[in-house]
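User: Could you check the structure of this?
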Amino acid sequence: MTAWDIKPQGVQGQLKVVGTHAGDLEKALSSWLTNVAEAAQAAGTAIPGGTEAGQPVGPVAPGQQPGPVAGSIVAPSATGPVAAALGEYVTARKPKLKSMAERIQAAVLGAATATNEYVEGDLDTAKQAQDAAKSVRLDLLKELGGRK
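Assistant: Sure, the predicted structure tokens are below.
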């Protein structure tokens, strides 16, 4: 990179815009996870009455108290097939969501670090920050940003 022409104020403005969008994305993902958890809970189970842990399991005659054995058999908290499928779906998507968050962080941190180094005249470190952002090396970006 022999010629850089960076306008720091422009970069700062764009980083604010990206930060706002990243915050919106974080809120949307948080809401999505809450909605998935609520959907899993509302889906119920394949076990009659199995949505509550701690309830006695087994037949009890109407008006009768469970005997000593029946009272000791307590239903575990049950997960129905829909809740299990939703759990698997979220688990499968977790690496992609993590990667997305890391790429956003690398882009913002890389742009900020490269711009700061450019302003200070250290084009080699600016290039290192740019390369680290491209390869999503958050460890290197944090190290470059913490040198000063």
